[in-house]
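Page header: ASSEMBLY MODEL / two components / 740 residues total.
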Amino acid sequence: MFNRCANVWRRRRVSGDRSSLTSHPKGPRVVPSSGSAFGWATGLAVGCLASAIYWRRHDEQSSSDNGEHKTDIPLLEQFGLPDAGLHTRQYAGHAVGFNQARRTPRWVAEHITSTKITGPANRKNMKFKADPSIQPHFSAFNEDYLGSGWSRGHMAPAANCKYSQDAMRETFFLSNIVPQNNENNSGFWNRLELYCRSLCSRFDDVWIISGPLNLPQKIDGKDCVHHYVIGKSDVAVPTHLFKVVLAGRSGGRSLCLGAFVVPNEPIGYTPKLTDFQVSLSELEYKTGISFFPKLRRGSWQDLCSVDGCQLMNFHDMECYIAERKLAATRSVHELDNIMQRLVEKGVEPHNGLLTKYKTKKEELLQRFQK
Amino acid sequence: MFNRCANVWRRRRVSGDRSSLTSHPKGPRVVPSSGSAFGWATGLAVGCLASAIYWRRHDEQSSSDNGEHKTDIPLLEQFGLPDAGLHTRQYAGHAVGFNQARRTPRWVAEHITSTKITGPANRKNMKFKADPSIQPHFSAFNEDYLGSGWSRGHMAPAANCKYSQDAMRETFFLSNIVPQNNENNSGFWNRLELYCRSLCSRFDDVWIISGPLNLPQKIDGKDCVHHYVIGKSDVAVPTHLFKVVLAGRSGGRSLCLGAFVVPNEPIGYTPKLTDFQVSLSELEYKTGISFFPKLRRGSWQDLCSVDGCQLMNFHDMECYIAERKLAATRSVHELDNIMQRLVEKGVEPHNGLLTKYKTKKEELLQRFQK
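Prediction written out in full:
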């Protein structure tokens, strides 16, 4: 298998360097992974201190190696150390740690409130596009997804940015997207996102971190990682998706935390969200990421014990989807079709939906009569 | 397959957080990826400037969204952004970009000279060990490798640090190690390392960057990445290894560059090093890494055109290995065995080796007679 792999590699060789590809285009606010300017300044101070300690330690060691050379770090860095584009990318409503090798986010962080998830912004005219801040050499493109059989799955959902059209627009950058099973995207994952938004009615602040995972599985008795890549950019298809949810009262009090790992496949209504819950420590182990590093371990309650982690059931979800379709419909015929399909699925519309249906129908009939 | 994968995940769930695991232990000098203190300070200045530009741009955008909220980045970062341990780790003789999810280096950078590769340091008493600067949660351990069928392959080779026992000792940290096919490690890769050292006799400075790769291959008509993980830490086994070699005359003049991607499998003597040569751009595309970012593209000659990229042939390599074994041998019987095995392999020892054999034999016989 590895021989075949090597052959694939050799076939794919491209001659000549594309010289323009290593310059860094302009983009969103770029900060080191510590995030804030304060963190950076602190990092500078800490770095100087650590450096001083290191050099002192190192001088002591060198003096014990009689006559040996001192390390020449500036010479090592004469042409720059390797740059894997590891800085944090800040957008209007979310932050991204991007993985240049996989052409997907490593993680996407958001902070939402009841105010942010309501407002006039909408998906109309929103288009997925390559992130202009990422070098084309390391970016995903719409062409990679189209015809691949995988949908473009938002990590920071568009609907979490109802307060700002700009913030919503930036969630359509492919730096916020992973190849996601279509049914998972519109089904279980969608219900998980709805649950996160519902938390805003019971908590003042909700922090969410989402991202892709490629987990090992046993194949022929050996632990293997096996995942697809799509398109010319070899965009990595995750085997799983993760979401860490931290919810708190005003000022970061009464914190509740839940971490979830969901397979990137159709899931349906039988499994509960708690079936996919993992400890934060286990998720950190699997992702190689420390989440909420400034949060004292053990300072939170279990989100699912406190808040239930109940996803919308089949009936309510079907009514919710019908309601959204209803709002966008412009013909009486299509309006009746939406309600008819509900009945065919055995879903009895609740009163709120029936009222909206009647109002919309009268509105359309009046418009038609004019 | 994904269902099985999900089941594996559920079975592996560990309850409870290991609270101590997110604190950062002391370790080597820690710097942001720009590397030097100068780079950091520059980064701070650039960051402030970029930040100012971003906020200006952002204010302009916000004013067009009448009455919309301004982004609250400090609130997003209240408990810290995700930390994937992406900083560069500096050691006495090399620098490492570590991959906490894979428990291997992402890349290892070295600068070698004819002086650095000669000296009294030796592998005696050198032991592989977990890197004390990496949190146990994200580290590889010797136990992961033992019994796995994969050898511990140095990225910065121990033999490149003959000038300093300390520098050599640090190459045995598992942060510098990947699971490598044993025959590849002692064979083709070893010959590539020997070639890199040989460059020091023809160039004043040699910069080398090495690391693991997991490349896609066609399986059932689809592009897949398939690789093993070993041990309790799920250390990722690379399908390939890469090495970028930059060689120059004094002061960074007359630069020559070669980039190579070698399958992590037995290779033997038939393939040439040039069979595995790739353009720097293609390697950057596959790794997601920009190499030598301060080096102007196109400012180098092709290493293999200038220097040949000839690896040691079978005869010379066998003599080289015999010579090393000979130096370490303490019995006449073993000494004769080494030479006998050469003859059995059809290798006629060159004069230099024969002289060393005779000298060593006399020395051992004299010691025995005493």
